[in-house]
Design brief:
Layout (H helix, E strand, L loop, with lengths): L1 H12 L3 H14 L4 H14 L6 H4 L1 H4 L8 H14 L7 H9 L3 H13 L3 H11 L6 H18 L6 H16 L7 H11 L6 H14 L8 H13 L3 H11 L6 H13 L4 H8 L5 H15 L4 H11 L5 H7 L8 H6 L6 H11 L4 H11 L2 H4 L9 H12 L6 H17 L4 H14 L2 H8 L8 H5 L1 H4 L2 H4 L7 H13 L4 H10 L6 H12 L2 H16 L5 H22 L21 H4 L11 H19 L4 H7 L10 H15 L7 H8 L8 H20 L6 H31 L4 H7 L8 H13 L2
Helix pairs in contact: 1-2, 2-3, 3-6, 7-8, 8-9, 9-10, 10-11, 10-12, 11-12, 12-13, 13-14, 14-15, 15-16, 16-18, 17-18, 18-19, 20-22, 23-25, 25-26, 26-27, 27-28, 33-34, 35-38, 35-42, 38-40, 40-41, 40-42, 41-43, 42-43, 43-45
Length: about 775
């Protein structure tokens, strides 16, 4: 049966429905009473004609039979089937029904694992509850169930009613409390999590943890999770006496700023003299302990004194930590005190950088002088280190390319400054990031890529940093066989590796490593709903349209990922259908530094919100559905939710609305409405990334419309061809005009000379020419 089933699935993937139907008929004859052939027969009918398949008369009677399917193979097929039908709230109910009729550990275990894979925390809790009575280790399963319930409350709490939340918490607390005394720190961590589901169980947490912490001793070791629980709940209980004792003890083992802050706060509540607390803080001379003197002033005096600030600056005025530390306390530090405090110490390079950042000076002349003063350090530092001199360089660049001063000459000058500086400081991350940004802004993505690859972005960094290069790449980088394609596939492996994350979560349950589970579940959710991931999916599909490449594999990947995204959102919301889709924005814009807020025009190419990113995927699905003459109820529902165009360019909005018009109107209707939309095609941007983007976005849209056989209206067909011809005819002129503008533009040679840099021949025009050649051949 298994080999025949596999053969049928292969036939379905190749679209050979007739042979698949014949094989499933033979299988049904061989096993007339088995569930698997019956469900597989329905699945073949569904795949043969999804639009006409009747779930109510076809699959539902099999699921709701007196003896529902219960073997692992059939349940797995039902899961796939229901997922493709879009019945997301039902995909795991078949496991629950099987367990109710034929309870056994294997089915329950499969149910639990499927729940983890689907990120269905409600079913994780239900399946682990059922497994308790079938397991050889019911104690462990009690903790599994409690941890699953905690995850449901903390991660998908909005899906629960107040009554459900209260009932789950009460049952978990009763079950776990009965297992005391706990046999490990991991069991105690679960107990603390369970208690946190209530508003009034802080005392129970403290009663379990406090005796161990107060005992201390030579063999005492600190579990950081338990330490956090204890401090948090002692504070909730206002038990300042024990909080002070615990914090005092913990300072002997840990150099932890949070502990020191709680030590100071509890001391204040106990009316312990400030000087006595200061002596406690001197138990160790570290960054955290010196910084705690500032916290001491804030708690006892509501303002930071010159003495406390001097004590901190004495050691850390020329350390990288100085800026974030003092920025945290800026509102509590009297005006001018930081500036006067910094002047008391020597002007080393890092000291000067810290002083600039803390003073928020904007005078470019000062940055010039400081750079010239410290430029010699670039020759003296180890080659693989990167220099704080980049601080001064980026401040100078910011003065040139901020939204008020932005022009082509200033951007060109900034590129020359950054390129010259990068030659002296080749491993500097901050300046190279801005070379990537500026080259992309200018429409030179191939040069931007050469810099981006030097950043050696890998693993999870792909999810947080790739947007700097990958945003709108299908239209900004119209090159088919560029190495960036390999870079993208490398980034995609991060998301492909997610398939193993549920396995690690399962192993954590089996090995009783409960403290890691919440974090892994949250990571799994963030990566599945990652905005960078979904942006790449839409961009890759548009890229294939631009080159008339095969799309079947990418479309299959889109559909599979889309179903899972819908599934995760349904599970998170607790609804029985897709009401909205939320992405997880993991993009790290902090790498742009202070320029992020003042230079928004040059970073505009990466400005895409969740709806615009989802629209890129909807666009590709609508095109596929239109070409097949089909509609998708989930796509229809998502389209009806609201405006997708807030962060789109004018051309992106035009392309999306054009394809939406196609999809929402039957091809049998008069398509004159489409001609009006095509006529409204926006003018091309005149320079930079917007020129390249507009041209290739319009080209991809018109080429797609020209290839769609279901567009019957002759006026539309002629108009598309005319627009396509005019666009292609304009390619040389619009790009050469921009290249001529670049060639005639002069950088600020005086500024370059002041910095000690020569006015060398830049590669900007050549970078645009590379894009021109590719675009004109499409």
């Amino acid at each position: 049966m298994e080999s025949t089933g596999n053969e049928i699935h292969k036939l379905l993937s190749r679209g050979n429905f007739k042979q698949a139907s014949q094989l499933v008929g033979k299988l049904s004859g061989q096993y007339p009473s088995a569930s698997y052939p019956k469900v597989l027969a329905q699945y073949v009918k569904f795949r043969q004609n999804k639009q006409k398949y009747d779930y109510l008369s076809g699959l539902e009677p099999l699921i709701k039979a007196k003896s529902p399917p219960s073997d692992a193979r059939t349940l797995s097929l039902l899961h796939t089937f229901l997922l493709e039908l879009g019945r997301f709230d039902e995909v795991l109910n078949v496991y629950g029904a099987a367990m109710q009729k034929y309870p056994n550990f294997e089915t329950g275990s499969n149910w639990f694992v499927r729940a983890i894979e689907d990120m269905n925390l409600r079913h994780m809790a239900q399946s682990s509850f059922q497994l308790r009575r079938l397991s050889n280790d019911p104690r462990a399963l009690q903790f599994w169930n409690a941890m699953a319930t905690v995850a449901l409350t903390k991660i998908h709490g909005k899906s629960l009613s107040g009554r459900e939340r209260e009932l789950n918490a009460t049952l978990s607390f009763k079950a776990i409390s009965s297992l005391a005394p706990f046999q490990s720190d991991q069991e105690t961590i679960v107990f603390c999590h369970v208690c946190e589901q209530f508003d009034n169980k802080s005392r129970e947490i403290v009663d379990v943890l406090l005796p161990t912490f107060l005992k201390g001793g030579k063999d005492f070791s600190v579990d950081l999770y338990l330490k956090n629980f204890l401090i948090k709940h002692l504070e909730i209980l206002n038990d300042h006496e024990n909080l002070f004792k615990c914090c005092k003890l913990l300072t002997e083992y840990l150099d932890d700023f949070e502990i020191l802050c709680h030590l100071v706060k509890s001391a204040k509540a106990l009316d312990i003299p400030k000087e006595e607390v200061r002596e406690h803080l001197k138990v160790r001379d570290s960054r955290n302990h010196r910084l705690a003197h500032l916290e001491l002033d804030v708690i006892y005096s509501q303002s930071i004194s010159n003495e406390a600030l001097h004590f901190y600056l004495e050691r850390y005025h020329d350390k990288p930590c100085c800026v974030p530390d003092l920025s945290f306390y800026r509102e509590r530090i009297p005006e001018g005190l930081i500036e006067s405090g910094m002047k008391q110490f020597s002007g080393s390079l890092i000291h000067e950088c810290n002083a600039i950042k803390l003073s928020q000076v904007t005078d470019p002349e000062l940055f010039l002088e400081l750079f010239k003063k410290h430029k010699h350090t670039l020759r003296e530092k180890p080659k693989t280190d990167y220099s704080p001199c980049s601080c001064f360089i980026l401040k100078i660049v910011e003065s040139l390319i901020n939204d008020k001063n932005l022009n082509l000459s200033n951007v060109m000058t900034s590129v020359l400054i950054l390129e010259s500086y990068q030659n002296e400081d080749p491993h500097n991350f901050d300046t190279r990031i801005w070379l990537v940004v500026l080259y992309n802004y200018l429409g030179c993505p191939t040069i931007a890529y050469n810099h981006y690859k030097e950043l050696h972005v890998k693993n999870l960094q792909n999810d947080t940093l790739d947007h700097i290069l990958a945003a709108r790449f299908s239209t900004l980088l119209p090159l088919k066989d560029h190495p960036f394609a390999e870079q993208l596939s490398g980034g995609d492996r991060v998301y492909e590796s997610m398939a193993s994350l549920p396995q690690f979560i399962r192993i954590s349950f089996e090995r009783k490593s409960y403290s890691k589970i919440l974090g892994m579940l949250e990571l799994n959710d963030k990566l599945n709903r990652s905005s960078t991931r979904w942006s790449k999916i839409g961009e890759q599909l548009q890229h294939t349209r631009l080159f008339n490449d095969k799309r079947s594999e990418l479309l299959a990947k889109l559909h599979e990922s889309w179903r899972l995204l819908c599934l995760y959102n349904v599970n998170a919301s607790g609804t029985n259908c897709v009401e909205s889709l939320r992405l997880s924005d993991n993009r790290d814009f902090a790498v742009l530094g202070s320029l992020r807020d003042s230079c928004t025009t040059v970073t505009g190419y990466m400005n895409q919100d969740d709806k615009a990113i989802l629209a890129g995927c909807l666009r590709e699905m609508m095109l596929e559905l239109f070409s097949m003459g089909e509609r998708d109820p989930i796509v229809d529902k998502i389209l009806a939710l609201g405006n997708f165009t807030n962060s789109m360019t004018a051309t992106e909005e035009w392309a999306f609305e054009t394809i939406r018009l196609l999809y929402e109107h039957s091809p049998d209707q008069d398509q004159a409405y489409l001609a009006e939309q095509i006529e409204a095609m926006p003018k091309l941007g005149s320079q930079g990334w917007l020129l390249t983007h507009d041209y290739n976005c319009q080209l991809a849209t018109l080429k797609t419309l020209d290839n769609l056989k279901r567009i019957k209206n002759q006026q539309c067909k002629k108009l598309v061809k005319a627009k396509l011809r005019d666009l292609r005819d304009s390619c040389q002129d619009v790009f050469q005009r921009y290249i001529a503008e670049i060639s005639s533009c002069k950088p600020n040679t005086e500024l370059l000379k002041t910095l000690g840099y020569a006015d060398f021949e830049h590669q900007i025009a050549r970078g645009v020419l590379t894009v021109l050649k590719s675009s004109c051949n499409l």
